[in-house]
Specification:
Blueprint lengths: L22 E8 L2 H13 L5 E4 L5 H6 L7 H27 L16 H23 L23 E6 L7 H9 L5 E6 L1
Antiparallel strand pairs: 1-3, 1-4, 2-3
């Protein structure tokens, strides 16, 4: 295995973020998934909570190490489905019982079995729309770019590198102290990312 020289001040000015823009955070480039998992656990143990990991493929252990919270999207989709079903049933009741009652072969006006297909279809439609809109809101889309794309080596994340970002909005974030912590995890490089 080749040894890599880790820069001690690469992109980390001693007097804080550069004048070109506000700091988004620090980005550490790691070589293996095991190194990323170890780094994520260590950063969480140190008390950092605003931490993101970027990998070429999903790694379940990273989510566990970062203590990623469950998404509220299933509840949003369920709510959309309930609203869709209730809307379909209420509209059909209005049409067939109140607005245009038509008695066919002595059947009751509120014959709910005939409402099932349309109620099912509107439930699925509203749940699908809620899923798409909920995903857009939760992912903060549309976002033309993400600040980590400003890091010069971040393009390697789609090939064979693993990145750990500590965001500047974290209460414990300090450019020098956080940088020292990330450099102690033996990354290839630690870079200050500007927003």
């Amino acid at each position: 295995m080749t040894t890599v020289q880790v820069p001690t001040t690469e992109g980390l000015p001693a007097d804080g973020p550069p004048a070109e823009g506000p700091a988004y955070g620090l980005l550490a480039e790691l070589a293996t998934p095991e190194a990323l998992i170890h780094a994520a656990r260590r950063v969480r143990e140190e008390g950092y909570r605003e931490v993101d990991a970027y990998t070429p493929y999903p790694i379940e252990e990273v989510s566990e190490a970062l203590a990623v919270r469950a998404s509220p999207l299933p509840f949003i989709v369920f709510g959309g489905g309930v609203v869709g079903g209730a809307t379909a049933f209420a509209l059909q009741r209005w049409f067939f019982v109140v607005s245009y009652p038509l008695n066919v072969a002595g059947k009751p006006l509120l014959s709910w079995p005939m409402f099932i297909p349309i109620t099912f279809e509107l439930t699925i439609l509203f749940a699908g729309i809620a899923a798409v809109l909920g995903m857009f809101v939760l992912c903060r889309l549309p976002m033309p770019y993400h600040p980590v794309f400003n890091a010069p080596r971040f393009a390697l994340v789609s090939r064979d590198r693993y990145f750990l970002a500590v965001r500047a909005i974290d209460p414990k974030f300090d450019v020098q102290e956080t940088g020292d912590l990330l450099r102690s995890l033996t990354p290839f490089e630690v870079t200050l990312v500007r927003a």
